[in-house]
Amino acid sequence: MKQGSRPDAGLPRVVVSVGMSVDARVTLSRDRLLLDEETARVWRSLSPASAQALGDAREAELARLYQPRAVLEGSGTFVTDDAGPLTGLPVVVDQPADQLYTDFLPEEVLERPDHDKWFTVVDGRGRVNWDMKGGSGGWDLLVLVARATPAEYLAFLRKERISYLVVGEERVDLATALRRMRERLGVTCVVSKAGGGLNGALLRAGLVDEIHLLVMPAAIGGRGTPTLFDGPELTHDEAPTRLRLISVRTETDGMVWLRYEVIHEAPAPAA
């Protein structure tokens, strides 16, 4: 697919909204998760005083413009690269495959009066052992899985009453996932706060519409350190994704908020 073309205009708007260093690093090294207390402490120390207010302003602007009803993360936010599918889960797989491998959206979640938004995680390999389900502040957990996801993991999600969508065969198909989120859940805007792997996949698939970056006055470096957009390199028949700068906000302590719109080119006509 030519870079910048969008495969389906009926998909939700996708906004990548991430904090990073000036060299586009989104964590300190590949094996250090920002959920780890010590890593988070060091990461926060890189942000000057204006970072919190700038982050709040970015969230308010996204809410004003698009009223996003879903935040998107990858499983790599919660587990390291070497983590495989969960084993030894406290469940018995006693449901037929044609039931397990269909979307699971419990009525008690959809109909809860304060249900408002989805914390959405791509976990096609079944790697995250959830101890939170949502229900606080209007947020609920939604897991994106595939037909190759272990049945034991899907049975675990059902036991825990965690919503999931089956979107893809061997892996999660992001375009299908976004389409299903719009059709089944009414989501018209998704904000990706994910790491480079998922953001890179969204970019390569032509699914990103807008990019909001909070840039810290720090450089991290390191070969292999995750960046804003990781993933496969461009092939010879692919072109970089072009952007249009919408706005820049700078602070005297070095923080910068950049907002870009992706320039979507019309797909080539079918032969």
TrEMBL record:
Domain of life: Bacteria
Keyword terms: NADP, Oxidoreductase
Associated pathway: Cofactor biosynthesis; riboflavin biosynthesis
A Pfam match: RibD_C
Domain Bacterial bifunctional deaminase-reductase C-terminal: 12-256
GO biological process per UniProt: riboflavin biosynthetic process
SUPFAM superfamilies (alphabetical): Dihydrofolate reductase-like
Keyword Cell division found: no
Keyword NADP attributed: yes
GO MF annotation list: 5-amino-6-(5-phosphoribosylamino)uracil reductase activity
Protein name in the entry: Riboflavin biosynthesis pyrimidine reductase
Organism per entry: Actinopolymorpha pittospori
